[in-house]
Structure to design on (155 residues):
């Protein structure tokens, strides 16, 4: 059975974001339309539904790297900021967006909090694996050679 590791992350995050739009616990806060995602950014995100993409991305990161803390996610979503004449330095992303997204994913039942950090629950794992399987079957239709590699039956 294909998992998150077997499909491209961009396809998985886009499909997961579409699913999260239907989940009532996951919704962008009022300030999401004009806030920057970190001090290393110059402008707010251009996409209208960037909140769902970020929540989907965080859910995937927690699946792959969990248990993971908010500070580790801040480092992942951070970037380079130019300060003067020297080279750009790494700046961590803002924690408010990450914390708010994690709280919403916890309320939806996809993530749980442990002593070591956030982990994906069985419900979140099954959601990600189900979406990964759908994406992998689409990929097999595009390229039948993948079925031989992964041992997936085409229906």
């Amino acid at each position: 059975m294909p998992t998150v590791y077997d499909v491209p992350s961009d396809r998985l995050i886009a499909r997961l974001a579409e699913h999260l739009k239907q989940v009532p616990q996951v919704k962008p806060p009022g300030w999401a339309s004009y806030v920057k995602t970190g001090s290393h950014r110059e402008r707010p995100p251009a996409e209208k539904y960037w909140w769902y993409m970020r929540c989907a991305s965080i859910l995937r990161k927690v699946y792959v790297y969990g248990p993971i803390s908010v500070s580790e996610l801040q480092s992942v979503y951070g970037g380079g900021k130019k300060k003067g004449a020297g080279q750009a330095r790494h700046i961590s992303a803002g924690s408010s967006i990450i914390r708010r997204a994690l709280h919403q994913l916890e309320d939806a039942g996809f993530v749980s909090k442990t002593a070591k950090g956030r982990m994906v629950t069985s419900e979140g794992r099954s959601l990600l694996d189900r979406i990964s399987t759908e994406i992998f079957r689409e990929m097999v239709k595009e390229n039948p050679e993948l079925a031989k590699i992964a041992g997936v039956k085409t229906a």
Notes: Residues 4-150 form a domain with the Arc Repressor Mutant, subunit A fold (CATH 1.10.10.10). The mean pLDDT is 87.
